[in-house]
Predict the structure.
Amino acid sequence: MKTEQELKNIVKTKYTKIAEQDKGENASSCCGATTPSTKVYNIMMDDYSETDGYVSDADLGLGCGLPTQFAHINKGDTVIDLGSGAGNDCFVARHETGAEGKVIGIDFTPIMVKKARINSEKLGFNNVEFREGDIDDMPVNNDVADVIVSNCVLNLVPKKQKVIKEIYRVLKPGGHFSISDIVLVGDLPEALREDAEMYAGCVAGAIQKTEYLQHISDAGFSNVNIQKEKAITIPDDILIKYLSQEKINQFNSDRIGIFSITVYAEKPGIDSTKPKLKLEELNKNSESCCTPSTGCC
């Protein structure tokens, strides 16, 4: 079992490499981090190209959802993006906050931060900044953000509970988050769980869906809601690197679920400037919602 620092080093090394290659290479691999599939498709990423504020130079093809689409960002909000990469989600968030708002991107890969700053300067965005740091120890004071977003990043961090507690700390009372991430239903084969590339590729570091939602509840968040959910299929030409054909067949028949979920939750507290969102507003445009009857909220 690798140590926490070893896992972080694996991610930093791999995402440094990703920052240096083009989107086409990233898009043909699992979250940009595994050996490219011989088939031409993207395994996890949703299409941002029609999203207001989208910046193609900042899109490295690394996400597993569109959290900003569901984040209910208002004009003037302060938004923090965890694992901001080259800045794409920050620029989409900036479109929603307007010039009167503020967006902070946090990433622990220096070349990503540099790339994002270059993109921001090209756009002339004076209210978007990028900070180098770990998202489980954010370089941000308490009670700063109205909204936090993140796209396929928490699964890369060994101590997920610590990240969720940090999210709670830096959100203002009454603030909320919308985060897309990878979760599991059932156990991955050991060969996938132990492989460094699959860890950096957003799969091996994922935890069980019920555990993920429980961590959010345990941190003190309320109104927890799954805004979107989609199944992720790892193609056989990637699995063959890790499993025999017999084990691939078993893996595909065991109903092991790998899912991208976008989760919304609120930090309790009074914030008179932001009305509380009703459930029907949270579920607007959602593809799959989590309700008390499903037992996951």
